[in-house]
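Incident review: delayed structure delivery

Summary: a single-chain prediction request sat in the queue longer than the usual turnaround. Root cause was a stuck worker, restarted by the on-call engineer. No data loss occurred. The affected request and its eventual output are reproduced below so the record is complete for anyone auditing the incident later.

Affected input:
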Amino acid sequence: EPADGGAALRATATDLARYEWIVVTSPNGADRLLCAIHDGERDARAFGNARVAAVGSSTEAVLAAGGIRADLVPDTFVAESLLDALGDPPHPAARILLARAEVAREVLPDGLRDRGWEVDVVDAYRTVAAPVSDEQRALVTGADVVTFTSSSTVDRFVEAFGVDAAPPLVACIGPITGDAARAHGLHVDIESSVHTVEGLLAALAERSMRA
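Output delivered after worker restart:
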C-alpha cells in the first residue's frame, strides 16, 4: 500500500467522472484503481464519460479484466509517448487523474501541466525492497544475465547486491530502465525496442542466436 494506506485513491475513486482522462501507467496501478472502485461497491459506471489511458499492453490487459477498455494505449510504452498522445486540454479546466507509484518520474505530470492540463497525482502503490537470502545471493553470483523491467528494479538490485555483483550480460526493457542502469555504472548490453516482457525476451533470444 502507499504511505496513506490507499486513502487518497479510494477517495478519488468516488468521483472519477469529473476527469477528462484517467491515466494508469502500470499493471499495479490499474489493479489498485480497480480495487478502490470495487471496495466502494461501485462498478465501471464510476468512470462516467472519463476516458482511460494505459501505458503498456499489460496495463491494458489488467483494465480489460476488470471490465474497462482503455481508450488510449500509446505505441511506445513510456510516459513521453503518452504525453504526446494526450495532447492539449479541450478547455482550460480540463482535469486528468494520474494513478501511479508513490515514487515515480515527474515527466508526465509536469509535461501535462505545461500543456495546460489540471493534473491530480494519486499514489496507488509503492515499491519496497524485498529481503534477500543467502541462496538468492548465490544464484545472482552464478547467473549469466540480469534482466531489468523498470528503473526501480535496477535501484533495488544495486541496493541488495551492489554493482559488482551484476552478471556479465545486462538486459533492460527499454531506454528509461537502461538510463537508470547506466546511471549506476552498469554497462547495458540489451535494450528492448518493444517495452514489454515479451519484447525483452525476444531481444534476449535474438542476442542468443547471434552469439
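Verification: DSSP finds nine helices and seven strands in the chain.
Action items: add queue-age alerting; document worker restart procedure.
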